[in-house]
Amino acid sequence: MVRVEWDAELAVLRASLAACVVGAGGSVVIRGPVGVGKTELLRSLAREAAATGVAYVGATGSQAEQTNPMGAMTQIFAGLDLQEEEAARAQRLLEAGALTSMLNGSYDESTAQVVVPVLHGLTGIILAAAERAPLLIGVDDAHFVDTDSLECLRYLVRRIDHAPVLVVLNDNTTVRPARPMIWAQLLSQPHRQLIRLNMLSPVGVAAVLRAEAIDLGDNTPGTLYEATGGSPLLLMAFVEELRAAQARRQAGHPETSIPASGHIFGQAVLNCLMRSDPGLLPVVRAVAALDEAVPAAFLAELLDWTTSATEWALDAATEAGLISNGRLRHRRSREVVLDLMGPQERVALHARVAGLLDRAGASPVRVARHWVAARQPTPPGSVPVLLKAAEQALAEDDSGLALDCLRLTDREEAHPDARVGIDALLTRAKWRLDPVFAEHHVDRLLDAFRSGQLSGEDSLALVAPLEWYGRPAEAEAVLAQVEASAGPERPDSSSVPLYNARMALAYWYPGVVEPVKEPPAASSARSVTAAGPKTLAAGLVHTVHTSGYTDEVVADAKALLQSCRLEDHTLYPILIALETLIFADCLDTAASWCDRLLDEARRRSAPTWLAVFSGLRAMVSHRQGDLAEAEEHALTSLRQIPPRGLGILIGIPLSVLIMTATRAGENEQALSHLNMAVPDAMFQTTIGLHYRRARGHYYLACGRHEAAIEDFEACGDLMRRWGSDLPGLVPWRTDLAAARLAGGLSAGTLAADQIALLGTQNVRTRGITLRVLAASSEPRSRPPILREAVELLQSGGDQLELAETLAVLSNAQHALGEYTHARVIGRRAQQFASQIMVTVPEQRQRPPAETSPAIASLADDPATFELSDAERRVASLAAQGCTNRQIARKLFVTVSTVEQHLTRVYRKLRINSRSDLPASLLSWAGDPT
Known about the structure:
62% helix, five-stranded parallel β-sheet
């Protein structure tokens, strides 16, 4: 490692070495935690000593050889350049000293047993050798040196003030001092120096990494400092791993993310522990098992130690760069430490931790984590704690811990009421991961309901999963029994939950339950801020059923989405609000909310939520005319959980996939989606309408007009019977009209009837309806109708329907001999079609070239001379079919600015709408900015 932040320390060592050369001996004690670089500093001094003619001899202390008398002195004399007689005498003295120590009874590492003649003799030999050449004696890991050798060194240090001898001792502060008196005497010498080595600072870490010239990948100097605490040992382990990853990439191996840490770092952590005080390991193990900061007194009770001993070990581990704020700094450190324990030892530790936390009144989740890790039967009376822990874990989006807690409850004899709570929580936890695995818990709750064990609120909670699983009759039975149990004298406030549940069932299964015609007074009197999500959703259902997709219902849907957080019990209300926006043709708003909810579902690791919102996002993309994006979202929905887990909602992504494949001309692919199994109950829902409609379009594409007409008529029959004949939901009349026209039949007044039913918000659906209406109108009436459809579809944002309508308008103008306008509009249609990679209806043959002048460029068209550059940019994008909002985003201006520019463009060009914009503006299509 490159030396950084050692300038002052090296200066002290060099000064001491220089004094030694001229005959002024002394000693230096280098103190610091394990891994700080003491050994490297001593080696650096030894290299400089050799360069100046100073002889170096060294010894290294060892925890295993700490009880070996005279072990370190034997290493020192083995390295000295002695005459034969001196070597023989030194050997006799070393043996005598070791023998004396052993003969004096049991070996006490804290008390030296060396007699004075041995001390004097060995010191004399060293001083004699130093007269021949200055001498540097270095002892690494001096804290592990045997007591007798340390006493010899103390004796030597007191006699070298006028001798060319320098003694350097490395002392590890993460080892508890075993011979404090000897060390006190060593440090009390007048000619000694004390160097304190500290861990690298953040600046020092950054300097080392710059010098190593390593690719950090996703890491930063700051994150590596946090992971290592500035420990050079741990930092260089990281550097080795990063360099190995860099070498793999340079060798052409597949690109992989640079590992945060691995085997090398783990070995460095073990090295720190093995070279530190034996007391560190139990404390670090306990910290690893806890994985949270606790007071030292708690750790002391856990280990059955004194608080002072525990505090010392914590401070030492912190100083070594292993612990920060009571927790291990890095996940790999925790893994390595826990792996040092056997399975039984780890289980016992977690069980003890759980017991202490429980007695200390810790939160249920904290206690339960250790009961789960212990994998042992929990103490009597633990079920309530585990249930609270599971509920808290779900609130924190930790479904895995919730399930672990609930599995532990299965081992206990639970009261029937507790059993109900267990099944309810298991339903929630498993639902987020895959509803298939939650169904048998719903069945058990249903049995508890039938036996009268559930409260009214818990009974109503069964309705939503039964709806999901396609069991509407059972859901209706629950509602009926709850309603009967409540009695006719109930107050309005208690009727609100029942009203909410009934309206939700009526939304998903309008053929099973009719919406309540008048909401209870307690529900209708609530404000948006006071009402809960389910009440707001019930209000949406009621308003749509009575008034359709109005401005009011769109505002209420937005208010619901803004006022509630995504949770298990708010999922259905959120779905109802999103579908309301989609069916009201507020597609940009619906897309924004879907994307926001998808991000939240990913962050909170809820595959079921992700599948549902991906399906709705696919529906939005399809209605915006982006077939590729729609297909991608629909496939994502089916990949999150097994298709069966989606229940009746599987019809949403499936209908989108059928429609996109059909529109792309991939009929075999569409058929494969139609062959996927769906619940029979889905056809009793509004989701089944989307599926029937998609199947009808597949039949239409295959030329099976009668089958298509049958599906579209079935949609109409169901919607009329259910009282939800809303074109924004499913425009079955225009679908039926298209099928009848394709089969050579009359479309009658289907399109005109649909226009009369449209809500104020259904701009996109109105545009589509006008196109179909034009198809059954007189030829000369078609262009004005189609131009209005183009205007509506441009503002509605459906690029696919816009391209098709432009192509139809081009053909209508061609049929009337308006060849120039037909070519302009046809070109726009082809441009849109190429952008979204689809084909549009074939356009009619152009007239001979002499009757059809070429389209002028923007520079040659005098009609555009009066436009400013800003107006040309806005008009060009409008001619391409961009909505005002899309133009505003592209040009980084407000929507109001776009509207003002277009107003001036229309006035200057003497036109009334976008469809009248001159073709020359399309010459700017490549770069309108």
